[in-house]
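Researcher: Next entry in the queue.
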Amino acid sequence: MLEIHNLTKTYYLNTKTAERTDEGAMPETPTVLPTLDDISLQVKRGEFVSILGPSGCGKTTLFNLISGLEKPDRGAILLEGKDITGERGHVSYMLQKDLLFPWRTILENCILGMEIQGIPRKKAREKARTLLAEFNLAAYEDRYPHVLSGGMRQRAAFLRTMLANKEILLLDEPFGALDAYTKSEMHEWLMSIWSKYHPTILFITHDIEEALFLSDRIYVLSACPAKVKYSLTVALPRPRKRHVLVSEEFIQLKKLLLQILFE
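Model: Structure for this entry, 263 residues:
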């Protein structure tokens, strides 16, 4: 289980250079940007939990803290009871941009995380090939990213994230740049993969329908500095298909989240 306790983060912006600076090297007249304010949440093993909030509220900062890319000013991050605050290497982190290397084939991109971990290339390639077909990418393993559609590139990026074999997957608006039709297809595809393998997923979005369709639970954040405004358990039955989007229960949950977000 991932536990986040009382995370607080403030940035200090150098008004002359518009660059963030470390607290120990603040400019004479910094702009103080409180970003996270006493954030606490939990993600159980095998859960799909979404972080829902307005753009710019600090959702990505939260992921940067969980992944160890940054350190909080206050608070703690625990994984299976162990304090991992400020440590890297415990989670896989997928951004909105697929970040596939254009000079590597799809197969070579998918095994990148395993290579970094020191897994022999032959073994890494064999492991990736066992999943390429399930990700609808088997016919493209020797192709380069530029020939793939946006949805296919995101599937490749997600496979790379899964193959890194970390306990938590952090997905930061991975479908935000896709058109509505492709996004809907990706939602159902992701649910099929999650239902089979049950990875623990923490998912950032500002899309209410996306959060409701995918999640077991949703944490709603306020505008910056972000606080947890509400926690919702999504009791919609699984597996979920597109028709749930027009069900009365789904619509009522959407109304509730809209009210909470804009109150």
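Model: The first helix runs from residue 59 to 66.
Researcher: Noted, moving on.
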